[in-house]
Every structure is written in C-alpha cells, then in structure tokens.
Amino acid sequence: MRKSTQLANRVIKTIGCANGLGGRQLGCENAVEVIKKSPFMANVAKRLDIQWGPIIEEVNTGRHAKALGGVTQTCRQLAHHTRQVIENKNELLVFGGDHSCAIGTWSGVATAMRPIGDIGLIWVDAHMDAHTPETSDSGNIHGMPIAHLLGFGDKNLKRIGDRLPKILPHNLCLVGIRDYESAEQELLEKLGVKIFYANDVERRGITDIMQEAQYIVSRNTVGFGLSIDLDGFDVSYAPAVGTPAADGINAMEFVKAMLMIDMTKLIATEIVEFLPRFDDSNKTSEQLVANLVEYIYKTKHFQLDSVIEIAQRVGRSEEIQQKISQSL
Ligand SMILES: NC(=[NH2+])NCCC[C@H](N)C(=O)O
C-alpha cells in the first residue's frame, strides 16, 4: 500500500467529558450524549473516521467553589485518557462539558508531549477563564482553566499529571475575548499572553487573526491544541451556551478560516460549553459542533496528504513522513 493512502486514513479518537458542575448553569453535562446521538455528527462520521472512546462522568462535590474537589478528580480521569490517546499517536477530539474540563484535556496532552517538547494552545472564547479561586467572584471553575494550565491557582488542580505548568504564556493565544474581569486581564498581561479581543477580530477578520495565532502557538512548540468554547461565537450561531456574550465571532467565517491556516501541527481539539437545552428548533448549536469537527479535520488531513504527495514527487517522502509521525 502506498504510504500516502495509509496516512489519508486517520482515526480520530473521541473522548467525552460529561461535566457541568463548574458552569454558571447546569446542563453542559448533557452535551456529550446529545453530540454522540446527533444526526449531524453521524453525517460527519461518514466522511471522517471518528471512534468514540470513554465518556468520563463527573465527580460531584457540590457547586461553585465547592466543586473544586470534584472537578480535580474529574480532570485527573480525563487527563489519564487524553494522555493515552496522544501517547498512542492518535488524533484526539474531546467534547465537554463545561470549560473546566480543559484542565484535564490539556494536562494529559502536555504531559504526553513533554518528552518531545512544549505544546501551544489556541483558546477561542468570549471569556478569559483566567481566574484563580482567590480572584473569582462567582467561584465557578469554568472561569479558571487558563490560570491553572499556566501554573496558578489551586495546588492540586494545577498539578495534574506533573507539577509543571502545562502551557507557557508565550505559547498561548486567546481569540474572541469580550467579557472578563480585571484580575484575569492583569494576570494574562503580566505574563505576556497574546489576547485577540473581539474588536481585533472585527477589525482584522478571523482568518488573519487565526493565522497569527497559529504562528504564535507553533513557533516554539512541537504542536498546538485548539480549545473551542461555543460562547466564543455569536449567539446567532451558538445560542446553546450558559454564559452568552454579545457580538461574538461569525462561525461561518471561522470555519472558512480553518481552510486557510496551517493545521498540520494540530495535536488535539476540544469543544466545550454546549448546553443542549438552550438550543433552538433548528439545532443551530449542535450543527455548529458537527461543522467545526468536519472543517478542522478535513482540512488537517487534506493538508497532511498534500505535503506527503508533494514530498513523494520530489523524492523526500520518507523523511517528511517520519517528521509528520513524530509530530503527531
Ligand atoms: N467557560 C466559561 N463560560 N466561563 C465564563 C466565566 C464567567 C466569569 N468570568 C466567571 O468567572 O464566573
């Protein structure tokens, strides 16, 4: 068999995290079962090789600040599974859950990649999610994953997998930000994290912003992750979220932008904060989840196959394929 055909056939290992106790409103814990049964996802699965793995059930120790213990245990389990998928050199796709699951997802990915190098992360969101338990007014852990991934906040939550920060500030980019508190902004600015606010997106267009973000998260890393909070998008494309914010990213422009950015170093994707009971009668948000998966992975696979094909023509395919499999 030609190696290009082998590479074209990529399995996407999918993990669900049925968590919602870190959110402002309950309901994100139902997202995974809705996505798993979704006819829109079934359609996508005809064109992409999506294989469902475990669904992690959350540990309940209470809501708001009291959720901390439970979220830590849930994230530990999730990190165990995401780490395994990456160590087995598979594509990884995670469906949350509220955004606190990101601590689990990226702790697992970062520790799996640690022997090779640092990972980058593009965080698409209306919010900065950069509180620590000390600075948060709401106590909701879905407002805290970025701080913990950077090595701040609760000592157990920031030390899942290993004791090191999971993402370094210069390898992180936030995109679409428009609703935040000053303590979060101060922390991120002090650390030098690149923030693309919603008005930057408005001014420059999402393609330009995503291209720069991809460059930033790739230049000092072995690859990057994509964490997509549905509330990053305008509510007309993603009504089913628990913490909506006006004037979000145009989702159609975003999926088109996917075609224009270099996805060959994408290590894993996470889609979170889908709250099914708030979806409209057309299931607009559910459709968006399916569209995101399709555009992201078709683009990535197409780009990888193109690289292989060109390399074969110029007689360097062995070397290039080796590089690609190392980076996966
Ligand atoms: N992942 C989210 N939806 N985060 C919203 C956070 C909202 C607010 N900043 C808080 O900390 O409570």
TrEMBL record:
**InterPro entries xrefs:** Arginase, Ureohydrolase, Ureohydrolase_dom_sf
What are the protein's UniProt keywords?
Arginine metabolism, Hydrolase, Manganese, Metal-binding, Urea cycle
A Pfam family: Arginase
Q: Which GO terms describe its cellular component?
A: cytosol; nucleus
Q: Which GO terms describe its molecular function?
A: arginase activity; manganese ion binding
Cofactor dependence: Mn(2+)
Q: What biological-process terms (Gene Ontology) are attached?
A: arginine metabolic process; urea cycle
Record pathway:
Nitrogen metabolism; urea cycle; L-ornithine and urea from L-arginine: step 1/1
- Give the EC number(s) under which this enzyme is classified: 3.5.3.1
Q: Which reaction does it catalyse?
A: L-arginine + H2O = urea + L-ornithine
Which family does the record assign?
Belongs to the arginase family.
Return the protein name: Arginase
Species name: Caenorhabditis angaria
